[in-house]
Amino acid sequence: MSSGNTPGSMHVSLSSRELEIIELVAEGLTNQEIAERLTISKRTVDNHVSNVFTKTGSKNRVALLNWAMDHGKICRDGFNCCVLPPDESDAS
Q1: Is 76 helix (H, G, I), strand (E, B) or coil?
Q2: Residue 57 pLDDT
Q3: pTM of the full predicted structure?
Q4: Burial of 56 (0-12, 13-18, 19+ CB in 10 A)
Q5: Strand partners, 46
Q6: Residue by residue, what is the 3-state secondary structure of 63-74?
Q7: CA angle 44, 15, 54 (to 5 degrees)
Q8: Are 23 and 36 a contacting pair, CB within 8 Å?
Q9: Distance (Å, rounded) from C-alpha 55 to C-alpha 7?
Q10: Domains in the chain and their CATH numbers?
Q11: 47 vs 71, residue with greater confidence
Q12: Cα angle vertex 23, ends 41, 91, to 5°?
């Protein structure tokens, strides 16, 4: 794994779908609810969530949301809502 993909790094390469999944997890949706919202299978959501856990080094949803807030990927209740410049890795 290159240093750009080290868990916890600001340079974790997340796809636009993975970022969307993180936002829906932040809304409190279950994997089944995310699947219904995106009209994809729950198994696909399970895979996306698992991949995001691996990429970010998160062991559960709470740790994932903490990581996402720390890295400007989500905004909650006016906290951490600054607009960060996109990582070059986000373009992929």
Answers
A1: strand
A2: 96
A3: 0.73
A4: buried
A5: none
A6: HHHHHHHHCCCC
A7: 70
A8: no
A9: 5
A10: 13-76 (1.10.10.10)
A11: 47
A12: 90
**Which residue, chain included where needed, has tokens 């779908």?**
17
d(CA 40, CA 82): 31
**Local confidence band at 45 (pLDDT 50, 70, 90 cut-offs):** very high
> How far is 42 from 23, CA to CA, in rounded Å?
16
Q: Please, which pLDDT band fits residue 77 given cuts at 50, 70 and 90?
A: low
Tell me the per-residue pLDDT of 5-44, one tens digit each, with 9 for 90 and over: 445 445 789 999 999 999 999 999 999 999 999 999 999 9
> What span, in angstroms and rounded, lies between the C-alpha atoms of 85 and 26?
21
Report DSSP state, residue 59. S
